[in-house]
Amino acid sequence: MKQGEQEIEWYKALVDNSSEILMIIDEYGNIKYISPSVKDIAGYDSDSLIGVNTFIFAHPDEVDYIFSKLQFLLENPGVPEFIEFRALHKDGHWVEVEAMGKNLLHTPVKGIVVTMRDVSKIKKLEKELRRLAENVPFGIIVLGDGGIIYSNKEAERILGYSMEDFPSLEEISSKIEGEKGSFISKMKRKDGKEIWLSVRYIETEWMGEKAYLVAFSDITENLLLQKRLESRTTLLKTINRILRHDLINDLTAALGMLEVYRDLREESPLSTVEKRLNDAVKLIKRMRELEVLSEDGKELKEIRISEIVGELRGKYDIQISLQGDAVVEADDALFSVFDNLIRNAVVHGNASLVEIKCTQKDGLCEIVVEDDGSGIPEDKLQKVFERGAKFGKGGAMGLGLFLVKKLIERYGGNVRAEPSPKGARFVIQLKGRVT
User: Domain Histidine kinase: where (predicted)?
Assistant: First the structure.
């Protein structure tokens, strides 16, 4: 046998025993040659298909699609083109097929060469994996060089994007290094809301190309709960420190005065004892107010400022004016905020007038509380909300203002002390509306 004939036999044996189908068609889609492996994949004898038009075996829904691919091959000689379609099996069911075609009509082959393989099992597995991916409680995306290749419904729910309008996710892709890993990343949803994600990824392959399978879950609420827990722990430590230090000091002083009274039988130590015990009682009452900050699960509700002011007018023998009114998101403990501010104005500032003004500013309700008392020194303004800060008549401790700040922060707002020519001035910002 000549060398040329040996090569032909070698190639024929290779094609005949390949698990893939090799097919040559003319420019109209008629079969000029098809390898015997078509029997294993589609159930037909290869000889019976010579001269048959391939469109006979195409699914009705895909005829136009396949025709467009044939047109592309005819217009682009030598350029390979990938195609996926369903082919009719001899027994009547449809076979999922992947094919690669190349126009060699201009060569001695004088035909369009198509290689095909059965991907039915792969497609079935892919559908099952997609079904599983759509039912897991975390987001899944596949990242390729061109961006997002796949996303499940949970990923779209978490981020607010549909598959068609997903952004580049630079926040995630920029942190992917190596074959696998995990990290926490801040993302912005389509609606603008910022969320925190716990992300895990692994390198994989998608359609023969390198890609990354990325799974993530929204941990924003968990981080908020953790922050609340840390805040509560700090608060409890503060309460413990106050009780250990201030209360013990008051009671120790009272006991000392009782010893003096026992020894001298004088009345003067009794007034000191009374004052110290009253201070201790006030401190315990203040601790009850602080307990509010450690409570969890209380939902905020709408609180009207004028109702709080009405109660306070009956409690203090000073003039309290209100300009405007507002409804803010808080709870019943908001009363303690204004109670503490007015108490400080009276006790430490010797005020006779407190003015409260409600306005809308930067999307928040701004409430200014200003008195005509002695005010707060400018060098104390930045520290006035700290536990243990002292100012005003008698240099009393600033536990009330510490409570004010913690409560306002609990409502998602902020409070600050500002310089004022006529007394103390506090500015509170809360979610709400002026009415």
Answer: 242-434
